[in-house]
Design goal:
- The protein has two helices and two strands; from the N terminus they run H-E-H-E.
- With 67 residues, the chain is α+β, with helices and mostly antiparallel strands.
- It has a two-stranded parallel ribbon.
- The N and C termini lie far apart (52 Å).
Length: 67
């Protein structure tokens, strides 16, 4: 009985975790090292929202690397 409860909870958490973290990753600079502006981000977000094959993707993450 306990095993089935634990498995049910684990399956539920795995499903929730997968849904929460669907999204796109964006960098803070272009390949030429120029900074991305607010307008650039807005354009990328709006483009991503219009993609037909990305239903359920509702978040964006910004990655930057300081060296």
């Amino acid at each position: 009985m306990r095993t089935s409860i634990v498995l049910a909870i684990a399956a539920s958490l795995a499903t929730t975790y997968g849904q929460v973290f669907q999204g796109f990753n964006y960098g803070s600079v272009f390949t030429n090292n120029a900074s991305v502006t607010q307008q650039d981000f807005e354009n990328e977000f709006n483009t991503a929202k219009q993609l037909q094959t990305t239903s359920g993707f509702t978040s964006a993450r910004l990655f930057t690397m300081i060296q």
